[in-house]
Sequence to fold (103 residues):
Amino acid sequence: MYAVIRTGGKQYKVHEEQILKVEKLDGTEGSQVEFDDVLMYSDGETITLGSPKVENAAVKAHILEQGKDKKKLVFKYKRRKGFRRLKGHRQNYTEIKIESITV
Fold:
C-alpha cells in the first residue's frame, strides 16, 4: 500500500513506516501532521487516481526532527573580468515518519 502526496511544491511516493525528509513544516518534534493533498493511492491491487486529489484520503505522520541540510556552495564566476562570488546555503527540512494511509 502506497500513496503519492504533495508537500512543499514536491511530490513524494510514501508507504507506511517510511522515514523521509520534506521541506520545512510547522510543528515541533513529536507532533502529528496530516497530509490531505493525496494525488494517488494504491492498495496493492487497485490504483485510485485523483483529479486533482483523491477524495477523503489522508496520510498521517509525525515529526522526528527539524533541522538544516548540508551546506550547498553557490559559486559565480565571469571569465576575464575578475568577478568571483562564493556563497553557501543550508536548506531547512523536516524529517517525518509515515504512520498511516487512510482512504
About this structure: The two ends are 11 Å apart (CA to CA). The chain has one domain: 2-66+93-102. Strands lie at 2-7, 10-15, 19-23, 32-35, 38-42, 47-49, 58-68, 72-78, 83-89, 92-102. The chain has no helices and ten strands.
